[in-house]
């Protein structure tokens, strides 16, 4: 359309702009989104349903058009059992086919990042460990490593503390993936798998309880090292786990991996391409399922991961089956890493001997007034961290979990932000669901393994 054919732009229209006449679509293209009607929004294309609840409600008032393709918008969640918490999806359906989807989050938001700015660096671990509550050690590790980098002590952490951190991180990866296998089975009707997955995870949690005193939310990995050394008999406990779980994984393979019904439910379902996954910031098993071999433990090694041998498991098709198979086999790779850690665990301190960062040993508090005062001050006032900003990312069971901290030199962070893998991964849902059946939505949501505490911080 030539410029002369464009409709006249009047001064009364608030969205008027001198450039309107130069666009190919004229007024419609330059119209603010706030003035777009619900009918126009329904004609949009793409995987994401960009429509508010109020705009969706307006559609109910419109008369039916027999010549128009009829679609409907339904809610899934936030109390739906397959959403693994309080995730809500607005689905636009044509028959049983999902056309577009809009994930709605925030139901579990408690302002934990903002709360972290009121807590000292000493207290921060109690806060971040509750974000991804299925992977608490990894949250604590990212926070502690970021704090240590600001303090300039990241190269001084004792060897034993580093290997202990790796041991707990890998066991945590195993417990998290075992829970995924349980819930994934439950979502698809394999109720026996739910029981078996919970059973094996419980064995790992018992070890965590013996080491830290808690099954979850440990606050055990702290700036400067760890809260305590490993208890007597820890090696036998870990060896028992390493002997117990491989047989159970073989049973999982029989129960699910080669099962025709299981394959039919997952293969070719919820496909995402490598380009889509990278563009959406997805990582962890979701990105690796598309064939991209990206794992921070190998590509940007931290702790002692560059000194252990393990494989990065990748998929081929980017579907729900690949994501299931990757997590199952990552349990095996974690066990391989844990065996190497057992062989290489050195003796020595489990935390840095720096009175400005770490508290005195518990036994000395009963003997020394100085130690008692030191203990009191470090837990009530914390320690000051030099000015600066830092970002540290590690590979959690769900992908890259990162901690950004800006410090103004006080004992509390000026700003803290966690790069949550579940938040990025959940953005893939509209692209995975598009064109699929609504009955497969449960399998697709389950395959992303979201933790809503990680999404709503």
UniProtKB/TrEMBL annotation:
It comes from Ilumatobacter fluminis. Residues 1-36 are annotated as: Disordered. InterPro entries: NADH_Q_OxRdtase_suD, NDH1_su_D/H, NiFe-Hase_large. This is NADH-quinone oxidoreductase subunit D. NCBIfam families: NuoD, PRK06075.1. The keyword 4Fe-4S does not apply. It is found in: Cell membrane. Its EC number is 7.1.1.-. The gene is nuoD.
């Amino acid at each position: 359309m030539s410029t002369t054919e464009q409709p006249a732009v009047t001064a009364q229209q608030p969205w008027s702009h001198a450039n309107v006449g130069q666009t190919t679509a004229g007024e419609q293209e330059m119209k603010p989104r706030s003035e777009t009607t619900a009918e126009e929004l329904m004609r949009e294309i793409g995987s994401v349903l960009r429509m508010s609840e109020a705009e969706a409600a307006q559609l109910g008032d419109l008369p039916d058009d027999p010549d128009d393709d009829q679609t409907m918008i339904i809610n899934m969640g936030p109390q739906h059992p397959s959403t693994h918490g309080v995730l809500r999806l607005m689905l636009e359906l044509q028959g049983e086919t999902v056309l577009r989807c809009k994930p709605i989050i925030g139901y579990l938001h408690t302002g934990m990042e903002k709360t972290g700015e009121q807590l000292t660096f000493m207290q921060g671990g109690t806060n971040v460990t509750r974000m991804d509550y299925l992977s608490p050690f990894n949250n604590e590790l990212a926070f502690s490593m970021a704090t240590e980098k600001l303090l300039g002590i990241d190269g001084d952490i004792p060897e034993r503390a580093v290997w202990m951190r790796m041991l707990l991180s890998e066991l945590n990866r195993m417990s998290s993936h075992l829970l995924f296998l349980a819930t994934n089975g439950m979502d698809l009707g394999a109720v026996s798998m739910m029981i078996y997955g919970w059973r094996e995870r419980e064995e790992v949690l018992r070890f965590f309880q013996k080491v830290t005193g808690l099954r979850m939310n440990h606050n055990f990995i702290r700036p400067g090292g760890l809260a305590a050394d490993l208890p007597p008999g820890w090696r036998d406990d870990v060896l028992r786990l390493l002997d117990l779980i491989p047989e159970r994984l073989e049973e999982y393979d029989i129960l699910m991996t080669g099962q025709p019904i299981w394959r039919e439910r997952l293969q070719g379902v919820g496909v995402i391409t490598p380009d889509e996954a990278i563009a959406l910031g997805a990582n962890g098993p979701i990105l690796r399922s598309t064939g991209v071999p990206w794992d921070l433990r190998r590509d940007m090694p931290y702790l002692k991961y560059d000194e252990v041998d393990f494989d990065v498991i990748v998929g081929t098709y980017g579907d729900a089956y690949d994501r299931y198979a990757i997590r199952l086999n990552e349990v095996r790779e974690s066990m391989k890493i844990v065996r190497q850690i057992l062989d290489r665990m050195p003796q020595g301190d489990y935390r840095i001997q720096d009175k400005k960062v770490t508290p005195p040993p518990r036994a000395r508090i009963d003997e020394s007034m100085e130690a008692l005062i030191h203990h009191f001050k470090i837990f009530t006032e914390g320690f000051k961290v030099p000015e600066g900003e830092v970002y540290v990312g590690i590979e959690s069971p769900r992908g890259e979990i990162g901690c950004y901290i800006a410090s103004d030199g006080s004992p509390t962070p000026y700003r803290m932000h966690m790069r949550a893998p579940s938040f990025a991964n959940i953005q893939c849902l509209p692209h995975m669901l598009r064109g699929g059946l609504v009955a497969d939505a449960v399998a697709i949501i389950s395959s992303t393994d979201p933790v809503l505490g990680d999404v709503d911080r």
